[in-house]
Structure formats: structure tokens, C-alpha cells
Amino acid sequence: MGEEPLTLCPDRTLACGVQGGFRRRPPPLPAIQESDIFLTRLLALPIRADAPPRVTFNELTTGYELETFMVHLA
After folding, report:
1. Does some domain include residue 61?
2. Taking the CA of residue 31 as centre, how many other CA atoms within 13 Å lie in the half-sphere pointing to its CB?
3. Which one-letter DSSP state was computed for residue 45?
């Protein structure tokens, strides 16, 4: 933390971490690629939904969430 831990220092060097975001971590590409492969293969199959999903918006991640969404092979 140094001698003045509460002082703003925009020129400080940041260590590399393990994920994306303000802490300069590399993006989670393997997770995105795995999701893409899974969804591409799933949506190529004849599927049907039992009912519409419950859609909510997550303020923390600024993204949509699907809940109670059940799909079956047709």
C-alpha cells in the first residue's frame, strides 16, 4: 500500500490477474467459447419450451437472466 494508501495514483503499475474488469484481468474466453459451443449445438436440435421463461435484469452484472426456462427435445 505504500506510505500514503489513500492517495490516488493513476500512474501506478497494475499486476496482471485472472479475469476481465477494472482490475486488468484477461477476459474469460474459455467460458465464452464453451457457452458458444453448447448453445450452438443445443439450438441445432429440435427443442421445445414448456413455458416462457421469467426474465429479470441483474443490476450488478447489467445483464438479463432467464429463470424457470425448461427445454426438451421435441
Report:
1. yes
2. 6
3. S
Question: Which residue, among 41, 44, 50, 46, has the nearest Cα to 68 in the 3D structure?
Answer: 50
Question: 37 lies in a domain?
Answer: yes
Task: Please check whether residue 48 lies inside any domain of the structure.
Answer: yes
DSSP 62: T
What is the pTM for the complete model shown? 0.48
The domain of 57 spans 29-73
pLDDT 10s per residue in the chain (74 long)? 567 766 666 666 655 555 555 555 556 777 888 889 999 999 999 999 999 999 999 999 899 999 998 999 98
**Number of structural domains found in the chain:** 1
